[in-house]
Design a protein that fits this description.
By secondary structure, the protein is α+β, with helices and mostly antiparallel strands. The chain is 31% helix and 30% strand. The chain contains two helices and four strands, in the order H-E-E-H-E-E. The strands form two sheets. It has a two-stranded antiparallel ribbon. Strand 1 and strand 2 form a beta hairpin. Helix 1 crosses helix 2. The chain is flat, with a radius of gyration of 16 Å.
Length: 81
């Protein structure tokens, strides 16, 4: 994966986004442990608007790993490139 050599644009944008991100709602239930947790859609709902308003898009892709499992990789990209 190629990344930017400089974070001078994305760092302030991440700060702006972080100031506006709320906690994800724990709406999913785990019957085995009898507790509630924030599922992936709740987490996305909690961060998407704040990131997008700050000029940041996120992309999530399933990626195979050396341990034979499928991992979810999240990449953030700033509008500056």
């Amino acid at each position: 994966m190629r990344t930017s050599e400089s974070i001078k644009h994305i760092a302030p944008a991440l700060l702006t986004a972080q100031r506006n991100i709320t906690f994800a709602a724990k709406t999913a239930k785990n019957p085995h442990f009898k507790n509630h947790y924030a599922d992936l859609p709740s987490v996305i709902d909690a961060v998407k608007d704040a990131l997008n308003d700050a000029g940041i898009v996120f992309i999530q892709t399933p990626t195979p790993s050396e341990d034979g499992r499928l991992h979810l990789v999240t990449r953030m990209i700033h509008e500056s490139g």
